[in-house]
Amino acid sequence: MAHSNNNSIRNLVILSAFLATTITFFIFWQLRATKFLYSAHDYSTNISNSSFPRKDELQLALEKASMANKTVIIAFNNEAYVEPHENEYPSMFDIFLEGFWVGEKTRQLVDHLLVVSMDKTAHERCQFRRLNCYRLAAEEDESGGVSFAGEKVFMSGEFIEMMWRRTHFLLDVLKKGFNFIFTDTDVLWLRNPFQILMINNKTIDLQISTDRYNGDPFSDQNPINTGFYFIRSNNKTTSLFQKWYDMRVNSPGMKEQDVLGNLIKHKVLRELNVSARFLDTSYFSGFCSGNQDVGLVATVHANCCRTIKAKVVDLKANKEKARIMATLRNLKIKTSTCKRIVKELHSYEKEVEREAAKTADMKSNGADLYDLKQQENVLAESRMMVPDCHKRLEAALTDLKGTLVELEESGQKEGAEIDDARSTISEVEQFFESSEV
């Protein structure tokens, strides 16, 4: 009986020890897990608060539109510019974008265009066109404050306020380290301006258009126009824009262009060590300057037009001129293509004659069969090129005729390019007629 009691006591002791060990292990594990969770939380908090700041929407938009050298093209629009004026198409924004399509080597630049919208309608229209878009002033026009949606008549209070809002935005772009070409939406791009601007010359900080060019690209007496300019981001230009924007407080009733013009006349560029080049109106033109030679200019600005209606009418006329110029360029290219194929055809025909004579001579002289076979292969290849040239010439002729008809239907029936095209068409048609005989 005593032995049985001893076993029971021993078993109870063992069970108690086991339970104590289990409870101790469980408590220890819980403490370790809790410590790990707090450590993980602290680690994630440290990561989120570390030196990995989130990029804002403007930074992302600029990076998306930027060229490799951190240069973007910036244009502003609002509802008045994207909607047809008096229900008549195209809108001002339509004309602006079409300039990139018909201009010379400008189509690829659309990828680097950032359209800054001043209201919801303009932003939605930009997104519909799948452009690089950024929405500005979203808070103001939805909270009952200032709205930049409608047409702002030149020199009205709202117009001046919108211009200063634009200047502040462009200052932010410079602070983020991006160079940019700023272009008004009433500027028609007829050819790539990068081919004329000294973009690779890093000693020039600012290149700005003028209303009237005095002949000296470095004279600060040129009357500037802020509707088109290229600026390089650095401390000097950021200081210039900051000083310019700060002057708005002491310049009531003045538009931002006049304020900057006064600063330049009072030697602010020299004060801040900003090097500037003033652009020749022969290449960066406007309606104020009177030079609208679409065969020479890179951009045409509808300045000196107070209303959108007037701008649309004049820019449509210039766009049509640009379209005709582009068609004339195509006509010249297609004329050259026909001439080149004719030369190729004549060359292959002479080659066939030459190789045929050589083959006949080898046969008459009893040439080695292997050498003769090789020569016959050369002759066959030459003969194959003749019908191929015929087909390409027929297609080129049809293409050339179509472009000529397009010009004639638009009223363009005279000119060196047109005369050359007609002469080439006549020669090619005579060649085909003689080939059929």
Summarize this structure briefly.
The protein has 437 residues and is α/β, with parallel strands linked by helices. It has helices at 2-48, 57-65, 79-82, 92-102, 120-128, 138-142, 157-175, 235-246, 256-265, 268-272, 308-364, 369-409, 416-436, and strands spanning 71-77, 113-117, 132-135, 179-183, 187-189, 206-210, 224-231, 276-278, 284-286, 299-301.
Low-confidence spans: pLDDT under 50, at least 5 residues?
A: 33-53, 138-145, 151-155
In what range is the share of β-strand residues? 5-15%
**Apparent shape:** extended
Number of helices: 13
Overall strand count: 10
SSE order, as H and E?
Answer: HHEHHEHEHHEEEEHHHEEEHHH
Strand order of the largest sheet: 3-2-1-4-7-6-8
Mean pLDDT: 81
- Main β-sheet description: 7 strands, mixed
Percent helix, as a range, is 55-70%
Q: N-to-C terminal Cα separation, in Å?
A: 137 Å
What's the alpha carbon Rg, rounded to whole Å? 37 Å
Layout of secondary structure:
Layout: H1 2-48, H2 57-65, E1 71-77, H3 79-82, H4 92-102, E2 113-117, H5 120-128, E3 132-135, H6 138-142, H7 157-175, E4 179-183, E5 187-189, E6 206-210, E7 224-231, H8 235-246, H9 256-265, H10 268-272, E8 276-278, E9 284-286, E10 299-301, H11 308-364, H12 369-409, H13 416-436
Parallel strand pairs: 1-2, 1-4, 2-3, 6-8, 9-10
Antiparallel strand pairs: 4-7, 5-10, 6-7
Helix pairs in contact: 4-11, 7-8, 11-12, 11-13, 12-13
